[in-house]
Amino acid sequence: MAGALPACEMPGLRTFLRENRGGMRYYRRPLTTETLFKDLPLHPMMAAALARRGYEVAMPVQAAVMDPALAERDLLVSSQTGSGKTIAFGLSFAPSLLDLPAPRSEKGFPQPRVLVVAPTRELATQVSNELGWLYEDAPVRLASFTGGTHVGTDVRRLRMGVDVVVGTPGRLVDLLSRGALDLSAIAVLVLDEADEMMDMGFKEDLESLLNAAPDTRRTLFFSATIPPTIARLASTYQNKAARLDMRPAGGAKAHSDIEFVAHLVSMRDRFAAVVNELLV
């Protein structure tokens, strides 16, 4: 039965319970006013990194995931591309990286504590870059592992120790099968653009990664939409996840703010057409 949650201390954040089905709590677009980063319970290193970039106002999904009531919870988040998701989960898993002792391999190198899975090499690179500046001052090693690079190089990087692993499903499963990627110490596992990964046929790869990580991990799913395939995956691999619906009010469809335009041009005019379009 739906009911109100205790009031939150963060200004402008009014999180309320929508439903409660099988232990999963549903929240609907909780922010009605701007929330400043200085009012959120951020790790000092995260606050300093944001300040250097000149970021003062948190985007809705960033403020929502920092609700103290959700600090240790699994999260199933509906949020569109470009809504600030990367920084949101980067802030969310900071305590697991910076406040807890780092596990070490037999040779004394850091073992992966955070795994972020993204559907494409381009997105994985973008996520790695964003987390790179966010954790610039932190004593953690971050690396990206995607297809199109020499697997031997990836194996050597992992042997030297990595705290945060970002990668695509296929390459990560390849490294896992080779025994190069050890997920036994993973504290937080993030699936970014989970719906896209399912659409691309990565279900088995995602399950392999989820099964290889400890049951005690925190699991965060970020997805523009929550189709039945994602809902089933979440019910299997998440523990009483808090469902955050950050989509625009009014029931707008995912990516409804993106306009698609097609231009028919001859093969030889492709480059000129792109340049002309960018200059308009």
Spell out the helices and strands N to C: EEEHEHEHHEHEHEHEHHEHEH
| Strand residue percentage | 15-25%
Largest sheet, in brief, is:
9 strands, mixed
Cα distance, first to last residue?
Answer: 53 Å
Low-pLDDT segments, ≥5 res: 1-26
| Overall body shape | globular
Whole-angstrom Rg: 20 Å
Share of residues in helices: 25-40%
Strand order of the largest sheet: 1-2-11-5-10-9-6-8-7
Give a verbal description of the structure.
The chain has 280 residues and is of the alpha/beta class. It is 34% helix and 16% strand. It contains eleven helices and eleven strands. The strands form two sheets. It has a nine-stranded mixed sheet with strand order 1-2-11-5-10-9-6-8-7. A two-stranded antiparallel sheet has the order 3-4. β7 (142-145), α6 (151-159) and β8 form a beta-alpha-beta unit. The protein starts with 16 loop residues before the first strand and ends with a helix. The model is unreliable at 1-26 (pLDDT under 50).
